[in-house]
Amino acid sequence: MDDIIFAAAYLLAAKGQLFLINRAERLAELMLLLAKYQLNPRRLRMVQPYADKEANLLLVEARACDKGKLVTEPPLIVYAAEGRYTKEMQDIYDR
Prior knowledge:
- It is a single chain.
- By secondary structure, this protein is α/β, with parallel strands linked by helices.
- It has helices at residues 2-11, 27-36, 87-94, and strands at 17-23, 39-48, 57-64, 71-72, 76-77.
- It has a single domain (2-94), classed as Vaccinia Virus protein VP39 (Rossmann fold, 3-Layer(aba) Sandwich), CATH 3.40.50.
- Strands 1, 2, 3, 4 and 5 form a 5-stranded mixed sheet that branches.
């Protein structure tokens, strides 16, 4: 992950955006690497397979040379109780 964040920091212009999908258990490592390479996390959203399960993925938007605040968005729930996609997930796939 270090190589990816380093390359992104090198390639991004000021205020350039980086979007990442990563395993939820690697959140601390990701935040440390973003800080190390002066990329500021702007948005964070956890992805849960079901509403009653822990998040297994995270979505992050980071920007180069930016001092904005981190916005934590509500979790994205993939499946409804009956094993079908939630409306939000279905809308994402229908785009």
